[in-house]
Structures are given as structure tokens and as C-alpha cells.
Amino acid sequence: MPIALIWHNLRRHWLRTGLTMASIVVAVFLVCFLRTMIVALNAGIEASANNRLWVQSAVSLFVDLPLSYQSRIAAVPGVEETCKFQWFQGTYIKPSNFFAQFGVDAEKVQTMWPEMKLVEGSYDAFVSDPLACLVGVVTARRFDWKIGDIVELEGTIFPRPDKSPWTMRVAAIYDADNPSFDKSMFLFHHDYLRKALESGEALGQQGVGVYVARIAPGTDATAVMAAIDELYENGPQRVQTTTEAEFNRQFVSMMGNIPTFLRSIGGGVAFAILLAALNTMLMAGRERTRDFGIMKAIGFRDSTAFGLLLGESLLVCGLAGALGLALFVGSAPVVAEAIARLFPGYRATPETIAVGAALALGVGLIAGILPAWQAGRLRPVEALRQEA
Amino acid sequence: MAVVPLEYNLRSLFVRRSSTLLTVIGIGATVAVLAGVLALQQGFERLFSETGRDDVAVFLRPGASSEGESGFTREHAETLIKGAPEIARDAQGQPLASGELYVAVRMRKHDGGETNVPVRGVQDFSFAIRGDQLRIVEGKRFTPGTDEVIVGTSLAQRIPSSKVGDVVVLNLTPFRVVGHFESDGPFASEMWGDLDRMTEALQRDGCSRVIAQLAAGADADVKALSERLESDKVSPAKVQTERQYLTTQTIALSGILVGLGGFLGFVMGIAAVFTGINSMLSAISARTHEIGVLLSIGFRPWSIFVAFLLESMLLGLLGGAVGCLMALPLNGVRTGTTNFQTFTEVAFAFRITSDVLVPAVLFALLLGVLGGLWPAWRASRMRPTEALRRV
Q1: Is residue B233 part of a domain?
Q2: Which pLDDT tens digit goes with each residue over A138-147?
Q3: Mind telling me how many Å the CA of B217 is from chain A's nearest CA?
Q4: pLDDT in tens, B38-52
Q5: With contact defined as beta carbons under 8 Å apart, do A282 and B278 qualify?
Q6: Are B69 and B126 contained in the same domain?
Q7: Of the candidates B29, B203, B278, which has its C-beta nearest A268's C-beta?
Q8: Residue B220 included in any domain
Q9: Short-list A140, A53, A58, CA closest to A99
Q10: One domain for residues B207 and B63
Q11: Interchain CB contact of A298 with B (< 8 Å)
Q12: pLDDT at A255 over 80
């Protein structure tokens, strides 16, 4: 019976119920969205492989290591393979088209990043053509690139005095099963860059920003890291070797207070929505003072009145929460696609869904308790005296 | 046309005060979130744009968009300095210009995390050009040619071993901290030392950029200077005034923050409008009888519409005021984030400016209008006879 009554009351004020629910849907969606952004910031860390070490300058992210370092790093016991990884930062047509480009040892990509699954083209095509590039599916789709397309990049760190662009051909496109793996990279032959710098066709310092080193299974990563760092303890350029997770973490820690900031916004949203729900439930309680008077007069208990209003609040918020979560889960693939460049790894996780559900029910409980308590304490005589 | 007295609506807001309060605080929270994001953006942007000078020119390598990407050999820098008549000269006839090295150096923060600290190698004239933009607050300036550095006050708070007398190691060379300096702009997050000592310690060739004091009246010629130098075969360069340069440094992060603020404002605004509609509908339904009376004594439906719309706008304005009050304590709160243009950490404070308050209040008013339009229209369409019948 009480359920039917709750339902009837909600329908009696269908408009108000609908608007309240819509606000809660929006809030649940927003809180889940913000939480996912924070999770996505850390996604790169989760996607880290534990058999890859990253060797970079201990001095600065922006200082390159000499080319000669590679063979000495490769000779450290436990290191199976090394690959150059040089930040390029070319401009494709206009600066806002930004995507990350790296000069690599083309022939080592396949074994160094087994996560990459080629969806078009082949490794052979990438390795054999000195001007080839291997592009992530996110970037390829963004610019509608097909195999064989020519991509012209204007150098910013490595400009060419004759103003000609760096010209490359799309040889293969990769995807990855792991949703957190970066699918927007643009990899090209480091040799192309090195030769241009050697011949003076391009300006800039010769070198490599990062060497990626794969260690043999069962090797003690800490010992290998220490051994690599020791090679250049006395210069000329000290190196810092980290696990892939640590390497990615340093970029997250650069975001400074942004995660805290997103969390405070989420708090503001939750607070605003609590007030909205409370407002609605207070209205609902006030309007039905007379109804409750009658119910109590004909013998219903105080607890029934209490339960009715609390139940109504929980039902409204629960339903709206479910809708908000459905919206969040349903829209996740689309949103993920839209923000893949800034926040790769956006996806609906069970934890976030739980947070959203807890928020909706929590708001329902808090917003329902005060009006429900008032309704429970009503004295029938007084309640009946009030005009409808 | 008879207008329903505003007092009617004021009293009505007061009579249903619990509902008014909840609606106002709800709108306030929405406005506060928007204002908070905008205050962050303002703090960041003004740190750069307000301190940039029009009489200082910044020379970068063509194609580079920030000094971190830019680079000149020493000879190239010398040619630039000597070859530009637009550069002001000191009493001895020396051009007031200086090559500067800019490297983002890894350092530990107090909280254990790692950060990229902007380290700047400068020549004597950098200080002459900066004048009192740079004020030593503790210790002294570094002695040219020695392994000494001075540290900006914002930076000194964030990293250990930056007190006067401490030693910081750059690559392999230990540098002694001999002073702290204060600056209103992004320099306060930097560490400064001698250009030659820095290039050697950090193993860099040449410098990152050249800065120059422009001769009086020459700031208008910067564009012409830039055009001339960009097509120069021997020593090409891109020239901007410092203000232009610093403004371009904020574009990426400012864009993200404005986008985020707009998105949050839009989404939370939807929820706030729904709440406003609810509140107004309930207010109107409680006063159905009164509306009937107003209509039957000759008030036009139009007046009723305006009256309730005004009431809703008042709700919005009150919410805007509450929201601004909620955001106000943020003013001056210090925070830090990475500037994506240079990948270095900049410290700055939230700033509540008119660029924050005006959009926030307008936004609140808009929420009030959107929340009130439909309920007010419904109220104005009531038929007096039916409305009067409802007790």
C-alpha cells in the first residue's frame, strides 16, 4: 500500500518530480564525469608496463642525452633492448592541432610496445620506408588520415632554415586493447631527424630526450636502474632511470592542484543538488500536512507518515541516480572519444558508478529525513486545522 | 498599464523564506563554482599579462612559441643585439639587451613530488632592464661569473634547500643561494644565475632568447622589426613585445579553464534552472487565489507575467550575490599548476576581479530569467474565475 501511495504522490506533482529528478540526473552525471577526469589523469600510470625503464636526463625534462649513451645503456646486464624516444613537437597546419610526436628506432617498436595492435598497414612498411610514420588511431581518425597519406609538419624545436616542412608518410595505424594506453602518438624514424640535423638541413641540438630500455624477464629492475644511473654519475649529463609508472607519475604530479580543484567542484555540485532535493521534499511535506492529518486520524501510525516521505525522497533520488548513471555509462564512449587527446583513458569504472549511486541515495536520505521527521511528529488535530 | 507593486514579490519571497533560502543557496553554489574557475583563470592570466611590458622586446627563434623551445647561438644573439637600432642604449652607448638561458630543471618539492623549476641564466643588462620589477628581499644579487643564484620568493616556499646560504646542484655544479627576490610576475617562480655559468653547468649551447629595452617610441616599430628579422638570412628571429609574449604563454591553460568553467556553468545551470522553476511553480500555486484577485480587479495578464518574472530574477540576483560571497574567500589563495606552454610550475593566487564578478552575476540573473519565464507565463494565463475558485 505505501508504495502505491508514494507513487501516486509523485504522479500528482509529476512536473515537480520530473524537474527534481532532472537536476539530480545532471548532478550525478557531473560528479561521475569529474571523478573520471581525475581517474583518467592517473590512467597512464595504470597502463604502465613493468618491464620498460625510462632513461632521461637527471637535470631537466628538456635536456637531451647524447646519442652515444644508447650503446652503453644497452650493454648494462639485464637490458634486452633499447629504443630512442625523442620529443619532436612539430606543428601540423596550425598549433591547435597539437599531438605528441616521437622520433624512435623504427625497427624496435614492434617488440618494445607489444600493446600496440596494428589495425591498418604493417610494421614492415613502417620500418622499410625512412620517411614512414606509425600513428595512433585517435590521431588518425582526428585528421582522417589513410595509409599512404603525406603528413607535413613544421618544426618548432627543429626548424628548417629553408622553411620546408618535415614530410612523412602514414605507413601504419595502431590501436590497443588497454583503454588507458595512449592511442594518439605519432612515431617516426629518429634517423630522419638525426640526418637532417647532421647535414644542416635543420637546426637544433642533436640528441635523444629519452631512451626506453626493456629488461629481461625476472631481472631486478631496481638494480638495473641503479646500474644505468651509475654510468653517468660524473657527467657529462647525469641520467635518471625510472620505471614506466614513475615516469608517467611525474607528468601527473605536474598537474599540481588540478585534481584537488576538480574535487572541490564535485563537492560544490553535490551540495547544490542536496539543497534542490531538500527544497522539493520540504514542499512535498508541507503540501500534504492535511493528508497526513487525515491518515493519522483514521489510525495510521506516525512511522507510516515518516516512511512515506522518506521513501518518496529515496525513490526520486534513486530513480534519478539510476538515470544519471545510465547517462554517464551510455555517454562514456562518446565523451572518451571527444576528450581522448587531453584525457586518454576516460571510461566508466565500477568505483565511479558506486560513487554516483552513493551520492544519489545519500542526497535522498538527507533530503528526506527532515520533512519525514516533521510529518511523523504532526499532531492530527493541528494538521487537520491547516488549510489544504 | 497597472504594474503589480514590487513589494508584493519581495514579501512573497520573505513569506516562503525556507524555500527562497534553499533556492538562493542552490543558485549561489552554481555561481560560486563558475566564479571559482574564472578566478583561477584570472589569477593565472593576470600574473602574465599585467607584468608584461610594452617597452621590452623578446627575440625568439622563428617557429618557437616559447623560450623553452627557442634557442640562439651566442654569435647569433650578439648579431641580433648589435643589429637592431630600435634597442635603447645606456650612458656608455651599450645596447640595453641581454641573452637569457631558460631551462626547466627537475627539483624535489617539499611534499616529495618532483617539479620543473624554471632556471634562468641572465647577463648584467637583464637587471638594468627589469629595474624595480625585481626586488631583492633577502641577501644580495649573485656576483657575475660565479656559481651563485638568487631564488624567487614563490619558488623558495615550494622547494627545499633554497634558503639563503643553501646549495643547489644543477647537473654536477653546486650553486650557492645568495639571495631571494620578489616580483609580481611569473619571475617569482624562477631561479636566476649567471648566463655563462648556467650554460656551462647545464651543458647548453648559447641562450634561449634575447630581451632588449626598446628605445623611447620604438615599441610601435616592433612589428616592422619582427618582419625584417624573420626574413633575415643570417640571423633570423621573431620579435614580440614582452606583453605580447607573456599573453601567448597563457593561451593553452586559459583556454582549458574557460572551457571547463563554461561547461560546468552550463551543466550546473541546467540543474539550477530546474530548481528555480520548481520553487516558482510552488510559489505560484500557493498564490493561485491571489492571482485570481489581481486579475479580477483589473491587472492585465502581462503585469502578472512581469511581476513573477521579476520575482524569479530577484531570486537569481540574490543567488548571484550569495555565490560571489561564497567565492570571495578564494581571493588571494595561492595555488600552483603547470603552464602547459613551458611545462614549468607557476605559483599564483586566485583573483576575484570584475572579469569574474560581472559574468557571475549576469549568469545568476540568466538563471533567474530562465527559471521564471515558464512559471510566470503559466500564472499570467490563469482564468480569474477558476483561480478564484481555488481556496
Answers
A1: no
A2: 899 999 999 9
A3: 32
A4: 998 888 888 888 888
A5: no
A6: yes
A7: B29
A8: no
A9: A140
A10: yes
A11: no
A12: no
Closest-CA residue of chain A to B66 = A156
- Last residue of a domain, which of B166, B185, B213? B213
Q: Tell me, yes or no, whether B190 and B305 share the same domain.
A: no
| DSSP, residue by residue, B206-240 | SBSEEEEEBPTTGGGGHHHHHHHHHT-SSS--EEE
User: How far separated are the first and last CA of chain A, in Å rounded?
Assistant: 23
B64 contacts A157? CB cut-off 8 A: yes
* C-alpha cell read off for A69: 649513451
Tell me whether residues A159 and B205 touch, CB distance under 8 A. no
Angle at B152 between CA B148 and CA B158, to 5 degrees: 105
CB-based contact (8 Å) between A374 and chain B?
Answer: no
Apex A183 CA angle, A177 and A184, nearest 5: 175
- Count CB atoms within 10 A of the CB of residue A206: 11
ipTM value > 0.90: no
Q: What is the pLDDT of residues A317-360, one digit of tens each?
A: 999 999 999 999 999 888 887 777 667 778 888 999 999 999 99
Instruction: Specify whether B39 is located in the same domain as B61.
Output: no
Strand partners, B344: B339
CB contact at 8 A, B274 and A276: yes
Per the structure, the count of domains in chain B is 2
CA–CA dist B43, B337 (Å, integer): 12
Q: CA A167, A169, A174, A179 torsion: positive or negative?
A: positive
Q: Is A254–B116 a contact, with Cβ atoms under 8 angstroms apart? A: yes
The whole-angstrom separation of Cα A340 and Cα A139 is 9
The A residues from 159 to 178 touching B (CB cutoff 8 Å) are 159, 161
Residue B366 in domain: yes
Residue to test with chain B: of A24, A55, A62, A260, most B Cβ within 10 A: A62
| Residue A233 contacts B, CB cutoff 8 Å | no
What is the bridge-based pairing of β-strands A166-176 and A132-136?
Answer: parallel
Same domain flag for B69 and B133: yes
Which residues 22-41 in chain A show a CB within 8 A of chain B?
22-24, 26-27, 29-30
CA dist., res. A183 & res. A113, Å (int): 12
* Residue at a domain's end among B213, B241, B273: B213
A388 pLDDT tier (thresholds 50, 70, 90):
very low
- Whether residues B165 and B23 share a domain: the answer is no
Pair (B323, B285) in one structural domain: yes
**Do residues B95 and B43 both lie within one domain?**
no
> Range of B191's domain?
56-213
* Cβ <8 Å between B275 and A268: no
Q: Is a pLDDT exceeding 50 seen at residue B5? A: yes
> In this structure, is residue B241 part of a structural domain?
no
Cis peptide bond upstream of A236, omega within 30: yes
CB contact under 8 A, A61 and B40: no
